[in-house]
What does this fold into?
Amino acid sequence: MPLQYVYLLLTVVVKEGQTVTEYAEKAGVPQTVMTRHLLEIGDRSRDKEKGLGLVTQKADMNDLRKHRAYVTTLGKSTMNKVINALYSVRRK
It folds into this structure.
């Protein structure tokens, strides 16, 4: 998994329920880039193929044009594996 995806997953884990624009601003990347990354780690990729399934996006009930990102069970499990891998490298 590319490092950008790990960083994005960590960002969503820390602050779930944000919009693409909010995540893009935090990461310092254009909104279009963040949209692509969220799609890739989400339910389906930008090519409409199966995504990684680490996050899911839900429509904002107050503004249906906006979607908010939430970590899936698989995403939480993956983040735990990443954290454990980092700690095991640090211990060596």
In short: Strands lie at 55-60, 63-71. The first helix runs from residue 3 to 14. Helices lie at 3-14, 20-27, 31-41, 73-91.
